[in-house]
Amino acid sequence: MKTKDIALISIFSAMWVVLQSYFGPIVGHLSIGFISFHGSVNRLAGWLLMTVLTEQVTGFGRITLMATVAATITRILRANILEGVIVGLGYVVGGFTFDALVNLKPSMRVRKYFMIALISGFMASTPYLTTKIYFLGFPGFMVASPMYIFSTVKGMLFSLLGTSLGVSINETMKRVKLTPNI
Fold first, then answer.
1. Alpha-carbon span 181 to 26, nearest angstrom
2. Handedness of CA 40, 89, 95, 22 (dihedral sign)
């Protein structure tokens, strides 16, 4: 791993942590009707930063590392440590999935970003959903499934929105030549 990669991963991880730490609690308490914005900052910021970082570094593992660092720091101080670990694991799984998919065929990256966002956004929800199935049992999970389906789709949409913003930032950086030459 190059020094540039380590520096960018550190900076982007810190940005994710700061955005989540400062804006997450504020935005997370907002709702429009029955639609809560809980978790939206993590999804929006995380997927935006993963998308932008992808264009700045090369090689598998960089996005996963950033997601792991950000998830560890943002989840370590949770009141419910078990939920924090499970949700944090979801962000690591989402980052790993994003990393794996984006590195399959880098030449088609921009065209694939939106599918990558949806798949990795869904995968970020799987540890949480899996624990709900375990603790509630399958019948209990099925009763509560409309709530979990809605939450998963909302997370996927905020992941998609973050990726869309990231693609826009990447295109702007290419147009005005802001890509660093470190």
1. 36
2. positive
Strands 31-32 and 35-36: antiparallel
Q: Return all residues near 127 (Cβ < 8 A) that are at least 6 apart.
A: 86, 87, 89, 90, 93
Please tell me the pTM assigned to this model. 0.89
Q: Tell me the C-alpha distance between 144 and 132, whole Å.
A: 9
3-state helix, strand, coil in the chain (%, to 5): 80, 0, 20
Instruction: Indicate if the alpha-carbon torsion angle 3, 167, 48, 114 is positive or negative.
Output: negative
Structural contact between residues 95 and 126, judged by C-beta atoms closer than 8 angstroms: no
Token pair listed for 87: 């949700």
pLDDT digits (tens, 9 = 90+) for 52-90: 999 999 899 999 999 999 999 988 877 788 888 999 999
- In the block, residue with structure tokens 């949409």: 157
For residues 26 and 92, what is the distance between their CA atoms, to the nearest angstrom?
23
Residues 118 and 160 sit within 8 Å (Cβ to Cβ)? yes
**Residues 68-71: contacts with CB within 8 Å, 24+ apart?**
68/92, 68/95, 69/9, 69/10, 69/13, 70/13, 70/16, 70/17, 70/20, 70/46, 71/95
Say if CB 130 and CB 137 are below 8 A apart.
Answer: no
Rounded CA-CA distance 63/163 in Å is: 13
